[in-house]
């Protein structure tokens, strides 16, 4: 594993063992060797370490696509590089470099972890939002299997709606992986907007189905900031 990976495990895993009560399932869906893209719903800043813990315990080293600003934080940024995480500079020409770096990880047989929503969900009840096309692009470019992983419970540690931390021992955190998303119908197609959007919808639908099972309640219509703005404007219209 090397010094820096061992350091990460020693720094992160013991506190998580104390502060979370883990209900984990689906390890059999994460291939032990070879390339894999793991897509995850994003409910809290606290879920990243829980997801990393899960992927590590599944037998893989997680390499997250993480927003570039994290890599500029003193000390933490240096650790991100040493832990071989992948910076993403959103909205710039450098964004293509993140895809290239992720393709290189996949071609080397690694495990890339992606939050398709691009940020923690803004949906009021923490259901997955509309996804971005990064995972679809990577899947189309590499042909690697896309394994869905859903998480629930990390919002009890940090709730993005209230911005409040609540760190207590044995907070219940559930993670479950499922079989790879079937994207075979798009194999070999050019990465056009319609193709990428269809693939992304397929990925997000699977995540929503799995999180619905996990939460024991039906998922509402998919949410996006634009749809929320339209709903608000309709509500403000005079009758």
UniProtKB/TrEMBL annotation:
Gene Ontology cellular-component annotations: plasma membrane
Record's keyword terms, sorted: Acyltransferase, Transferase
Domain Phospholipid/glycerol acyltransferase, chain residue ranges per copy: 36-154
Any matching Pfam family: Acyltransferase
MF term (GO), any: 1-acylglycerol-3-phosphate O-acyltransferase activity
Keyword Ribonucleoprotein recorded: no
Origin superkingdom: Bacteria
UniProt entry tagged with the keyword Transferase: yes
SUPFAM superfamilies per UniProt: Glycerol-3-phosphate (1)-acyltransferase (SSF69593)
SMART domains from the UniProt entry: PlsC
Region Disordered, annotated ranges: 215-239
Protein name: 1-acyl-sn-glycerol-3-phosphate acyltransferase
Protein source organism: Virgisporangium aurantiacum
Lineage of the species this protein comes from: Bacteria, Bacillati, Actinomycetota, Actinomycetes, Micromonosporales
